[in-house]
Amino acid sequence: MKRSAFSLNAARMAALALALGSLAGCESLNDWFASDRVNYKDTPSAPALNVPKDLSAAQQDQRYIAPPASLALGGAPQRAVTAAGNATEGTPNAQDPLGMHVERDGDRRWLVVDGRTPEQLWPQLQAFWQENGFTLTTDAPATGIMSTDWAENRANIPDDWFRRTIGRVIDFAYSSGTRDRFRTLVSRGPNGTTDISITHSAMEEVLTGQDKTSSRWVERPRDPALEASFLSKLMQKFGLTDAQSKQLLTDARTNTAPAQIDKSAGAATLDLAESFDRAWLRVGLALDRTNFTVDNRDRAKGIYYVRYADSMEELKGDGLLGKLFYSGSKSRKPGQEFMVNVRAKGDALTQVAVLDANGQVDTSSEAQRIVSLLHAQLN
């Protein structure tokens, strides 16, 4: 990974100003920088968001407030003990002895937890991201959407001789030149299960100009391996061992159905040869892997409310970087919102369409682009 010119120069200038006597106390970091390690805990976070003085906080519906993780009777359920001796968050059964399993569609994976509702698992999900060094920017149990801020994986910083010698003293001056963000979608599955997916978004700082003294942020592809790593960590949070979680990832069950374009309605829609429950989940995953962000969703109506997301602008305004350098910028208008409708056409057939404000199939070029993107993601 690259380091920005600013970060590199700042590190070396700070190093020259420090006493070299600190060298003797430094430890080797070779073990820390194993290829499968992640470390977002040392990333500074922005202050918590507060409601502006001229606005009042919205009233929360008590039905959607998850119980604290410490509650037992009447709150968070007690864990079940499996035949393998795990105290698992899921409910073990003949099909899933560990109380959970992983399903996949291509390189997209999601966790299925047996016998638990989204409300029961929500507190553990909140704690999971906080324990891994993230601040939640979206924490909405009513819609099942949870998003983190942009954070830096400190494990990506090269372990060179300079950092090994005095890196402990000025480690804050180093940067990997990358930022990651994760979105968790929590859906109510069939037969009392809960589906949990984790989607990765990434930005990278690249040097520009002939002399490489300036830089800009560009979008980086999502990392399916990093998503799988966090799913593994989440399974361990829910009571599995490292080996068990990795085995479930290896044994992930294929759950896919091709999407067919239907133009009989005068505009393109999609037909999925599967039930509404499966289609609802897969459409959410597909949207999450495009530049359209799910702001809200209503499962009863079968509607995802999405908008085009500019990752660069969001990175500028999010986290410590945005607070320091972009606090004076004008408020950005949200992108145009679209309604993606998922509705059952039968027990094993589901239609996906983009609707306009009147609830009719949207024939605009932007809406048809969303259909094309979904078609590509679902096949």
UniProtKB/TrEMBL annotation:
Signal peptide: 1-24
Keywords noted in UniProt: Signal
Record has Signal as a keyword: yes
InterPro entries assigned to the protein according to its UniProt record, in alphabetical order: BamC_C (IPR042268), NlpB/DapX (IPR010653)
Protein name: Outer membrane protein assembly factor BamC
